Amino acid sequence: QKEVEQDPGPLSVPEGAIVSLNCTYSNSAFQYFMWYRQYSRKGPELLMYTYSSGNKEDGRFTAQVDKSSKYISLFIRDSQPSDSATYLCAMSGGYNTDKLIFGTGTRLQVFP
Amino acid sequence: DSGVTQTPKHLITATGQRVTLRCSPRSGDLSVYWYQQSLDQGLQFLIQYYNGEERAKGNILERFSAQQFPDLHSELNLSSLELGDSALYFCASNEGTSDTDTQYFGPGTRLTVL
Questions:
Q1: In this complex, do A43 and B108 lie within 8 Å of one another by their Cβ atoms?
Q2: Is residue B98 scored above 70 in pLDDT?
Q3: Residue A98 — very low, low, confident or very high, per pLDDT cuts 50/70/90?
Q4: What is the pLDDT of residue A95?
Q5: B108·A99 Cβ contact <8 A
Q6: CB of A26 within 8 A of CB of A82?
Q7: Contact state of A97 with B43 under an 8 Å Cβ cutoff
Q8: How far A110 CA lies from chain B's nearest CA (Å)?
Q9: DSSP secondary structure, A4-57, as one string
């Protein structure tokens, strides 16, 4: 069993839809949770960063962490075609210098 | 643009050969991380350097090695290349001193082994 599980998709939604992306994990030591967006053949770009449990909102994006369930989510409101990309969840232990463990990524396509 | 640069962008080589990938971290960042992204494995952590010293090791093969130089740029050396080494190789950097810092990724080097 992988430490981080993520549905690979693809997920196809119409423009304006609310998108929900999720990851589950098994390592209770994870403290830092991130969402990266990766366009085709480009480097991952940090979208959201959350420490421990709770919610964080940034514009159209909301990240949620539920440590008791070992479950994290990313919500995208009013999705746009420019949101079409692969979304990777990532997490690490007690320090930023620790390695990041990534999910396999969910491919999202938003069609006009 | 993350501020992390990687060269070359693309590399095509043959099995058995050796290649060197180069990474320049963001200005001020002391920590460099290397990751491999293949279609079937996703993003896998390889190795981390902090201010010239190896700090953490992940799923890095013995045929692979890395180092970080005094000017903080890093090189990843891949030898005795096999077809399965074809992948995107990413470098990431951060200051490496704060719990709230995160990793910033470069554009990657696409390696194709024929």
A1: yes
A2: no
A3: low
A4: 53
A5: no
A6: no
A7: no
A8: 22
A9: EEE----EEEETT--EEEEEEE--TT--EEEEEEE-TTS--EEEEEEESSEEEE
